[in-house]
Amino acid sequence: MEPHNQTAVSQFLLLGLSDDPALQSVIFNLFLFMYLVTILGNLLIILMHHSCPVPYTLMVLRLSFCKNQEIPTFFCELAQVIKLSCSDTIIDNTMVYVSTSIFGGVHFSGIIFSYIHIVSSLLRMPSSEGKHKAFSTCGSHLSVVSLFYGTGFVVHISSATSHSLRKTAVASVMYSVVPQMLNPFIYSLRNRDMKESLKKLISRTASIV
């Protein structure tokens, strides 16, 4: 084999969107604005989501705890932490249940209100095929919502009434892991291409075995 001259390339040059200096400044300002909106918007979402735990953290800090420091689950659940306290936890438990009922009730009411309008709109659609596709989409979302709220309700009930460590741990898994795990399957298996790809994969695997 004849030797060839080769040059090792370690850098690449990005040409950008335009060579015009005046247009480059416009593009730079446009993308800077888009990035700032993206960062600030997501930061606002993070702050809003981490503002539904700050009062709970302050409540826990005022409590004193006994020697038993074992939490019967795999994450630091607030209800289980309060149970370990030697202090009077009436105020803490009341605030937890009240806030959970208010925020959970608002979210659930919003979902029900949305589905009432969605169903009423679907019933007025003339095409049966369109109705079937729309109901399929809504059914997938409703399955995820029902699984999330159902398991969350089980967790709170089991934490309040059950003293079994195994039941509490299982309920916590159902609430925090299972709904998120099933999300990709519920949404992706609705897609016709995904179903065909899955069938081909299963048939190929079966033929190899």
TrEMBL record:
Domain G-protein coupled receptors family 1 profile per the UniProt entry, residue ranges: 1-187
Superkingdom of origin organism: Eukaryota
Predominant cellular place of this UniProt entry's protein: membrane
Localization: Cell membrane
Keyword Transmembrane helix found: yes
Membrane-spanning ranges: 26-49, 102-123, 135-157
Keyword Glycoprotein on entry: no
Single Gene Ontology MF annotation: olfactory receptor activity
UniProt-listed InterPro entries: GPCR_Rhodpsn_7TM, Olfact_rcpt
Membrane topology: Multi-pass membrane protein
GO cellular component annotations of the record: plasma membrane
One Pfam family cited in the UniProt record for this chain: 7tm_4
Keywords per UniProt: Cell membrane, G-protein coupled receptor, Membrane, Receptor, Transducer, Transmembrane, Transmembrane helix
PANTHER family: OLFACTORY RECEPTOR
Family recorded in the similarity comment: Belongs to the G-protein coupled receptor 1 family.
Protein name: Olfactory receptor 7G1
Upper classification of the organism: Eukaryota, Metazoa, Chordata, Craniata, Vertebrata
